[in-house]
Amino acid sequence: MVFAMGFFCASYFYLLFANKDSDNTNNAQAYFFHLLSSIFEIIEINARLMIMKNIIVFIFVMAIPYSGFSQNEILEASIDNTCNVKPAKINVPNGKTASSFVVASLISGNNCYSGAKFTDKGFVIKNSAGDVVYRYQINKDGQVFEPNGALKEFKLSSGIYQLYVDGGKGAYVKLKFHTI
Fold this sequence. Notes:
- This protein is α+β, with helices and mostly antiparallel strands.
- Helix content is 32%, strand content 32%.
- α1 runs antiparallel to α2 (28-67).
């Protein structure tokens, strides 16, 4: 900014004293307005760059709480078409907590022997000792059974857990949660 003002003053005085036409009249006034216009363009460009820089810094600063401190996780457990159980491993690192669980998809599948469609569906989360730490079920009428409390309020401390879907072949569960 100081450089622009110094350049402006020096240019104005040069034009004022050195730039005369054949009639010996001063054209410095016309050049003055062109010079002034150029300086305002420089100032405007600098102001826009400063605004863009501030916006980028703002976005970066606002993104920090959502990037390294909370991590979104997705788990999928199933029972395949040959009735093999495919649990999902939940690994909650030391010092972290898994929370904000949401059911993204839940399918009960069909009975492995008769092929009949199951009407109830659900899943369980077990700890490393095999104990059920959370159970979630929905009956044929859509009533939700959560004996360990609401899923959205359920939390897992650090450790290793397994997610199992209830049902038969084709059963599937997809859970989303945050690790904080």
